[in-house]
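Duplicate of #3305? Posting structure anyway:
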C-alpha cells in the first residue's frame, strides 16, 4: 500500500515557482529544488514527473496565481479606461519595488526557454495573448461607453499597450533605471487619457 503524501503539493509548487522565477530553469538544480521545496527528489519525480514537468507546473501556477490577480480587473471589471490606468499604475509601483529585480516569470521564461522548449514557449505566447485580449476588452468597454471614439483602432491600441508592457518587463530584468521605466509608463498613461 502506498504511503500518503507528507507534504502539501500546492505549497511545494509555490516554493518551486519562486525558485525557478528567481534562478531560471538552467540555474536551478534538483538539489536546489529539494532544499527549497523541503522534499526529496523521489517525491519531486513521483509528483511532477521530472524537472521539466515541475517547471511547466510552476509556469501554470504563476499564470493561475500571479497573472490572474494582476489581470482580474482587466478581464472582469466594467471600467475600461479606469482599469487600464489602474493596471499601469500597479505596474509602475511594482517597477519601483526592490523585489522587481527578479522580473516577470513569463518574460524570464521567454528569454531563457522559448527557443528550446516548445511547451514553455506555448505558455509564454498564451500569457501575452491573454494580456493583449484583456487590454482589448477594456478598450472595447471604453468605446462602448463613450470614453473613446467609435472609430478607435482597438486591436492596434491593445497591441501597443501589450508591447509597451512587455518592454517595461524586459527593462526591469535588464536592470534599467526604474525612474525611466516609470516615466515610460506615465507617458503611456497620458496617451491613454487622450484616446
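Output from current build:
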Amino acid at each position: 500500500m502506498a504511503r500518503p503524501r507528507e507534504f502539501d503539493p500546492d505549497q511545494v509548487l509555490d516554493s518551486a515557482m519562486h525558485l525557478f522565477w528567481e534562478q531560471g530553469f538552467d540555474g536551478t538544480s534538483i538539489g536546489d529544488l529539494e532544499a527549497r521545496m523541503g522534499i526529496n527528489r523521489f517525491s519531486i519525480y513521483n509528483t511532477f514527473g521530472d524537472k521539466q514537468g515541475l517547471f511547466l507546473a510552476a509556469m501554470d501556477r504563476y499564470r493561475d496565481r500571479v497573472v490572474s490577480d494582476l489581470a482580474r480587473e482587466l478581464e472582469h471589471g466594467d471600467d475600461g479606461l479606469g482599469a487600464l490606468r489602474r493596471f499601469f499604475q500597479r505596474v509602475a509601483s511594482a517597477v519601483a519595488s526592490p523585489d522587481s529585480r527578479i522580473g516577470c516569470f513569463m518574460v524570464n521564461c521567454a528569454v531563457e526557454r522559448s527557443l528550446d522548449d516548445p511547451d514553455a514557449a506555448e505558455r509564454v505566447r498564451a500569457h501575452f495573448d491573454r494580456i493583449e485580449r484583456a487590454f482589448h476588452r477594456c478598450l472595447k468597454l471604453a468605446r462602448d461607453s463613450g470614453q473613446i471614439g467609435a472609430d478607435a483602432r482597438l486591436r492596434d491600441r491593445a497591441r501597443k499597450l501589450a508591447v509597451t508592457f512587455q518592454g517595461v518587463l524586459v527593462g526591469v530584468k535588464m536592470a534599467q533605471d526604474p525612474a525611466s521605466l516609470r516615466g515610460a509608463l506615465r507617458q503611456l498613461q497620458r496617451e491613454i487619457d487622450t484616446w
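Confirmed duplicate; merging threads. The mean pLDDT is 92. Residues 59-194 form a domain with the Tetracycline Repressor; domain 2 fold (CATH 1.10.357.10).
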